[in-house]
Write a structure and sequence with these properties.
Elements (H helix, E strand, L loop, with lengths): L1 H45 L7 E8 L4 E9 L4 E8 L5 E2 L6 E4 L4 E3 L1 H15 L4 E8 L11 E2 L4 H15 L1
Parallel strand pairs: 3-7, 7-8
Antiparallel strand pairs: 1-2, 2-3, 4-5, 5-6
């Protein structure tokens, strides 16, 4: 009888473990789907740019193990605008220098500015001589942080054009 109880305890523990893992993977898949939706929204918005811009989406750089959501190039003036897409809703807190930001469910997430700053560094290694700009696009967010590098999908094309015009003025 005691061995039966021991086996049952192990079975219950195993079932709880499996259910917990299923919940973990379900949440992970949901986050990935939300992230991909945000990236698709930005990809579609960037298709509205004029022909002098070239857009690359979902770029992977193997040695540095990084994935960049979008890069907008203007090869004529050696410009690369590196865009990190976040679909976090409206409630998050953080500033440029924080290592982590806090989302509405009190989760600590990596600072998107710093994350994309690293991406910009990688792009500069591959595209020598290009002026590189860091942009974070908060898709679906109406209350965008008041930083020059933040926008949402509605202001993204204006931001790209402002950066382009700034580079043109410096030439």
């Amino acid at each position: 009888m005691d061995s039966f109880r021991i086996i049952m305890v192990f079975v219950v523990i195993f079932v709880i473990y499996v259910l917990d893992k299923c919940h973990y993977f379900e949440n992970k898949i949901r986050k990935e789907e939300i992230g991909k939706l945000g990236e698709r929204i930005v990809t579609n918005k960037l298709k509205e740019l004029p022909n002098n811009f070239r857009v690359e989406n979902n770029i992977r750089f193997g040695l540095w193990k990084c994935q960049i959501d979008h890069i907008v190039f203007c090869d004529d003036i050696k410009l690369a605008i590196v865009i990190e897409t976040k679909m976090w809703g409206n409630n998050f807190k953080g500033n440029r220098n924080d290592e982590y930001w806090i989302t509405s469910n009190n989760k600590h997430v990596r600072n998107p500015y710093k994350q994309n700053k690293y991406h910009c560094k990688i792009v500069r290694k591959y595209y020598k001589g290009y002026k590189t700009y860091n942009v974070v696009c908060f898709v679906g967010c109406k209350r965008i942080p008041h930083y020059s590098w933040c926008t949402n999908e509605n202001g993204l094309l204006d931001m790209v054009n402002r950066i382009y015009n700034r580079v043109i003025m410096d030439i």
